[in-house]
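Predict structure. Chain length: 419.
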Amino acid sequence: MYNFMFRYQFKIALRNILRHRLSSFINIAGMGVGLAATVLLYLYISYEKKHDRQFVNSNNVYQVMVNTTGKDNSIVSTIKETPNLLSSVLHQEVPEIQAIARITKEVPRLLKANNNSYKINGRAADAGIFEVIKYEFLSGNAQTALRPGNIVLTENIAKKLFGTIDVINQVVKYENQVDLKVAGVIKDLPKNITYDFDCLISWKDYEALNDWVVYPNWENKFFYTLLTLRDRTNIDAINKKIGSFIANHTGVTKLNYSIFIYPLTELYLHGEFLNGKPSGGRISQLRIFISLALGILCIACINFINLSTARSQKRAKEIGVKKTLGATKMDLKIQFLSEFLILTIISVFLGLLIVELSLPWFNAMLDTKLIIDYLNISNWFFFLVLIAVTTLLAGGYPAFVLASMDTIKSLRGRAPRGT
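Prediction complete.
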């Protein structure tokens, strides 16, 4: 019974949409553009919120941070750069640390192999980096990949240099200085991670090429330190513990900085600090985009409402006849909401088409890699919620107005005032 009624209402709604082709087209076009903008902003917001969350252990990765202090011990700034010696000291003194590694800043490096040469982004890191961040290996062994004399490449760079990812034990010339053996190939890294690279060499090789790195200086804060913690570790307790033993290893009774750890997944969006405490960051920009997405959706719905109610005069007789034949207000509301639902679904598909056509330009402008993953359940949930909310927002008021028309006035072709 209900299945028959649904199919009947659907057919009637579709017939009415086809009967009023021009107004339906205008509604669909306007709503489609608005929904396209909303979906684009949704993709960008999702992309930003996933920053550094792509790895299986992302929630357990921490960045060691430094609060620099002034003469009055007030915190002047909070930075990510740490001393070279810090990682070994932390590993010795804090048993709660599961894995720890230093990693350098990303710097252009020259690689040569097979008469091919490329300037690519390179880093150096301790072997423990693969325990801290679970990069996906396509070939090679994560435990041995960063032994001295080895280099790790991304999939794309391996193909550029050798034409294949089957490159284990192949030799590349690094910076025209040293030959390194390829010991690992990892999956290409997304743009929305902090510690991306095209090639990675061992810390020992980095020290051999840059002798100043070995010099023990606690004031030389130039490298990044990342770590993971054992289960059920209290972060606040760790931060208190760190501050108590650094002076014992530096030989300096009073340092002009203090150290604490901070979740890497929080650093991108909440990376601004005031007096050593998180005070905001890119999250403010993201909130603006969320407000913008909601605003665009509301404007599209208001435009939809105005266009729908403006043509109520043309449907007055139709409504009067249906009421005369026994249609109730609820029947009419269901019919009109069915029409708006169909229009919204078509608008969503139009919006997705516009998004697909716009993504190359959008990605080039913002240097992102946004895609619509149609296999992602979260995306489908968003689309369904978008359809439901848009139908109710855009179709609720017109459906109420049209269904509430007086029967006699409707038969005379008069729409109610205010429409």
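Summary: The mean pLDDT is 85.
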